[in-house]
Amino acid sequence: MDTTRSEPANDVESALRRVKPSVRALGAYTLQAYEPRIKLNQNESPYDVPEAIKERIHTELGSRPWNRYPPFVASNFIQAVSEATRWPADGILVANGSNELIQSVLAVTVAPGISVVIPEPTFTLYRLMTEVNGGTAVSVALTDDMSFDVDAIIRAARDTDAAVVVLCTPNNPTGSALTREEIERIHDETDALILLDQAYVEFGGYDAIPLLQGRPRMMVLRTFSKAMAMAGLRAGYMLADPALQAEVNKAKLPYNINFFSECAAAHVLRSRGELAPLVAAISAERDRLAAEMAAIPGLRVYPSAANFILFRVEAPAITHTQVFERLLHDDGVLVRDVSKYPMLGRCLRVNAGTPEENDAFLNGLRSIMETAQ
Ligand code: PMP
After folding, report:
1. C-alpha of residue 57 to centroid of ligand 1, in Å
2. How far apart are the CA of 199 and the centre of ligand 1, in A?
3. 60-96 burial, b for 16+ CB within 10 Å, e for fewer?
4. Tell me: the pLDDT tens digits for 319-363?
5. DSSP code for 27
6. The pTM of the whole model exceeds 0.90
7. Residue range 84-111: average pLDDT?
8. Gap between the Cα atoms of 24 and 28, Å rounded
9. What domains does the chain contain, in order, with CATH numbers?
10. β-strand partners of 166
11. Ligand 1 atom showing the smallest separation from residue 42 Cα
């Protein structure tokens, strides 16, 4: 018997010591589960995909064998994206939600010693995936009014020789957006890859797809989870130069998108004209919410180009936690507590729902804030 070698340990700590210390130091992306009457916390569409579109999807799915893999390349979905965006099919990557594309882009670009510039506060997955890959997230603070500090972003990217600058526009959770000129400046004055996450662009802000032509360092991400009303099916896509797409593709799992989602996303995209009135109604409700919230004393309401609104509870007699709890328990309305994000102490985020849902939220919020005067 080999006496120089001790018995392999069989405790949990011995298992966990094999996980990268940088990962063990991280907190996971989480969401607390609630079952509210009115759900305004995840920026989903309040409207389901119209029945007529669902029927066309069901008909096509009905004849598909479940025992067979989907096509190796999701060419039907990719073709639909190509028709909708006028971007060549070989520059398109489709995935199980745009989350997965954020993960793939950062997997092929980030390693220890590599920097990623992230204007914050923003969607927390960019930082998480940068750090899981061992890279350095270089945070650039938004300005006081939550707009992007373009000069500081450019400076940070140049100073750290950043591999990627992640720009979420419109930005979650602030709703602020970059102009075409600002995006062009960040691209032209750095030599980083520019990852534009446009999950909310159907609701407002500059649609950056026309910028892709002739800019092989730029990538645009889009999702079906918001305006396209398909959060439950998980679908998203990336547009980029075919050479860059081919590299990101190496980190994507084979068959990452199942044939239900692939088929549904292609149909929804080809029928997007039928969804357009719903998207317009959500944007109009966002504007109504913003105007009515701005008239409530004790709140600071930030302008938004997305389908949600960030607001700060400034009245000294009440906390954001009390507002959150009372909306939930008295009015059945669930909003998102974003107060742990950098710069967002005392802040909540609410997404536009149906007019009735928004009324319930506004009435609840008005009466809560009245008691705090
Ligand atoms: N990007 C942003 C900015 C988001 O807010 C979200 C979802 N909250 C995503 C990406 C992920 O979307 P998906 O459902 O397509 O994975």
Report:
1. 23
2. 6
3. eeeeeeeeeebeeebebbbebbbeebebeeebbbbbb
4. 999 999 999 999 999 999 999 999 999 999 999 999 999 999 999
5. P
6. yes
7. 98
8. 10
9. 31-48+274-371 (3.90.1150.10), 51-270 (3.40.640.10)
10. 195
11. 8
